[in-house]
Design a protein that fits this description.
The structure holds two protein chains of two kinds.
Chain A lengths: L2 H4 L11 E11 L5 E6 L2 E3 L3 E5 L6 H8 L7 E6 L2 E2 L3 H4 L3 E4 L11 H11 L8 H11 L15 H12 L6 E5 L7 H16 L3 E6 L2 H5 L4 E6 L2 E7 H7 L3 E6 L2 H10 L3 E6 L2 E5 L5 H10 L4 E7 L3 H9 L8
Parallel strand pairs in A: 4-9, 4-10, 7-8, 8-9
Antiparallel strand pairs in A: 1-2, 1-3, 1-5, 5-6, 10-11, 12-14, 12-15, 13-14
Chain B lengths: L18 H18 L2 H23 L11 H8 L4 H13 L1 H20 L1 H7 L4 H34 L5 E2 L5 E2 L1 H30 L5 H20 L28 H28 L5
Antiparallel strand pairs in B: 1-2
């Protein structure tokens, strides 16, 4: 029997074409602060779901609730078609990395994984050694397996955290900030690792406060802001949400702004040497003609959709750490 | 479909039935390794091992007159010159006041609070190790540590005693003399008794450990509990509460050194330890069941 065969054959009980569903999930800290404000997540099976939001927006608390580490104050959730009351039965199918990797500094990478595997009440005993080596190999740590965790670099620690999730076949991987604190090279390694995990059919739920780090790998995104889920859907839907704008470079911004106003364009902003406005379906060539007609010297004209980053700033308000 | 790239790893069909026990034993072994191979704990055990050696050397250089000494530990000191076995008893007596409880405090502080502090508690619980299962395994490990620590003290005491002093038939506290084998059997019983006393202390420790993520706080609190208990136990004005103090029966093992053995004292002690294990075990379990793991 191979691992592939023993994996649940996509058993999707009623309505469970979703890997994670939460309804009204909320967590209020003892201090009274509402860390997670009644969110309704819908993570489709087989997706790579980017769970985005600034630090402190409730991402980690949500993940802790999903993994049974903290108890929701309200609401409910289901993972892989299993209700939270039977969480212990579904957790073996979920690989997790919560708020950064946490291992014993005095043990080696291999010993740490062996300990995780030993703690698993349903691990397959005869294959333990092979599975541990394989997990280490998948994250590229086989060569450093016998080094103490203490001596690992931050990137190696993150990769070991992911390896712990790969000790057995999983249907869902929950990765909390797997790229946190990594250099661009490390971030790229984690990204390709996540891609590889997803390519094998595992649903990946990955949180990050940096949009740019997960944008390339996500099929779906959920955006958190101060405990609320302010957007959820396919990445393409988020992209199409931004209204195209026209941007005019000119030496006479006031007159250009006046012309745009006459044409009925909204949200006109004028800075030194350029004017921009929401295009609102007007053909740009017509606007150009009007500008020239009004004697505005047009040095350049372009239309552009706002970048995803701009949309995120809009969704999450100020303080979103766009550039790290 | 799960990770296709792991297909080459064979997965054998798990045998149901015996599996939970085998899995638990594996977890227990891993836990034991973590406690007994941890450099800090090894240093603690080395200190415990060094104490009887030190005491033996001191008493060899400055041998007390046979029959000298007073009550308590003194009763053993006077006999060491005549029989090295008593060095073992003397070492247990001396270390039981502070050093053995200290070792138990360190390990029980580590048990849950230490894991929380490292963050490994969340790693283990998301495996998922199971909260009750984890707690039970942790406590079983503490009990093993208590036995190991006591055995090390007694064993080295016996070894050093045998090297420095004559060894022979044992004269009990009641004045009778029993053969060496009988004496050693009684020593074994005393080791078990003291280890159980320390295990009861460990139950208080693991309960405290579920309330914080600072192992050092557990250690300090537990030591304060021990010291206050020992002080109160020495104040006759509060004699009414003496039987309820955690440390009250620790030294009752001298009943095992009399003929006939005064079992009532020993059994009272064991009942007290059992009560502490049950009460604090339930507290630890209740806390562990519901606790939000935010570390």
């Amino acid at each position: 029997m191979t691992l592939t065969e023993s994996a649940p054959a996509e058993a999707s009980p009623d309505g469970a074409d979703r890997a994670i569903t939460t309804s009204g999930l909320a967590m209020r800290f003892r201090g009274g602060q509402l860390a997670v404000d009644h969110i309704d997540l819908a993570v489709p099976h087989g997706s790579v779901y980017g769970f985005l939001g600034p630090n402190g927006s409730g991402k980690t608390t949500t993940i802790r609730m999903l993994l049974g580490l903290v108890h929701p104050t309200a609401g409910t959730f289901a993972m892989l078609g299993t209700d939270l009351r039977a969480l212990d039965s579904v957790l073996p199918r979920v690989g997790a990395l919560v708020e950064g990797p946490a291992f014993y500094p005095f043990l080696s990478g291999r010993q740490n994984l062996a300990r995780c595997d030993a703690a698993d009440p349903s691990a397959d005993l005869p294959t333990a050694r092979a599975r541990i080596d394989h997990a280490l190999d998948q994250v590229g740590l086989l060569a450093a397996a016998d080094k103490r965790y203490r001596a690992y670099s931050l990137g190696m620690k993150q990769r070991l955290g992911i390896a712990a999730g790969l000790l057995r076949p999983r249907d869902l991987m929950i990765l909390d900030e797997p790229t946190n604190g990594l250099d661009p090279q490390g971030t790229r390694e984690i990204r390709s690792l996540v891609k590889q995990i997803a390519a094998d059919g595992t649903t990946v739920f990955v949180s990050s406060h940096l949009l740019a780090e997960v944008e390339q790998i996500c099929s779906h995104v959920g955006v958190m802001s101060t405990g609320r889920l302010v957007f959820q859907g396919p990445l393409s839907e988020l992209r199409s949400r931004g209204e195209p704008r026209i941007l005019i470079r000119t030496t006479d911004p006031p007159t250009a702004a006046e012309v745009l106003g006459k044409l009925g364009l909204a949200d006109i902003t004028s800075t030194d040497g350029q004017v921009s406005a929401v295009l609102g379906g007007q053909p740009p060539e017509k606007i150009n003609a009007e500008l020239v007609h009004a004697g505005v010297p047009v040095a350049g004209l372009e239309t552009a959709r706002p970048s995803l980053e701009d949309l995120f700033v809009e969704l999450t308000g100020e303080g979103f750490d766009v550039n790290g | 479909m799960s990770t296709a790239s792991v297909t080459e790893v064979p997965q054998s069909t798990p045998a149901p039935g015996a599996a939970p026990v085998r899995h638990w034993l594996r977890f227990f072994r891993s836990e034991l390794r973590n406690v007994f191979l941890r450099p800090r704990n090894l240093a603690l055990l080395a200190v415990l091992a060094g104490a009887p050696v030190f005491l033996g050397m001191v008493l060899r250089i400055n041998t007390p007159a046979p029959g000298s000494g007073g009550p308590g530990a003194g009763a053993f000191v006077g006999q060491i010159a005549g029989n090295g076995v008593f060095l073992s008893l003397f070492a247990i007596y001396v270390l039981l006041t502070v050093l053995l409880p200290l070792a138990v405090s360190v390990v029980s502080g580590d048990s849950v609070a230490g894991e929380a502090g490292l963050g490994t508690l969340r790693t283990l619980l998301t495996v998922p190790a199971g909260r009750t299962r984890l707690l039970a395994t942790k406590y079983a490990t503490i009990v093993v540590f208590c036995f190991a620590a006591t055995l090390i003290v007694a064993g080295l005491g016996l070894l050093v005693g045998a090297i420095f002093f004559p060894v022979g038939p044992v004269t009990l506290l009641s004045g009778d003399t029993v053969p060496l084998a009988d004496g050693l059997a009684r020593l074994a019983l005393i080791v078990c008794y003291v280890a159980l006393a320390m295990s009861a202390l460990g139950a208080i420790g693991i309960a405290l450990s579920t309330f914080t993520q600072h192992a050092i706080a557990v250690m300090a609190t537990l030591l304060v509990v021990v010291i206050i208990s020992e002080i109160l136990d020495a104040v006759s004005q509060v004699a009414a509460i003496h039987p309820y103090l955690p440390s009250h029966f620790w030294f009752s093992f001298d009943a095992l050194l009399r003929t006939p053995i005064a079992w009532s004292g020993v059994l009272h002690g064991l009942a007290s330890f059992a009560a502490y294990v049950v009460i604090f075990g339930v507290i630890a379990w209740a806390r562990m069941r519901r606790a939000d793991i935010t570390s």
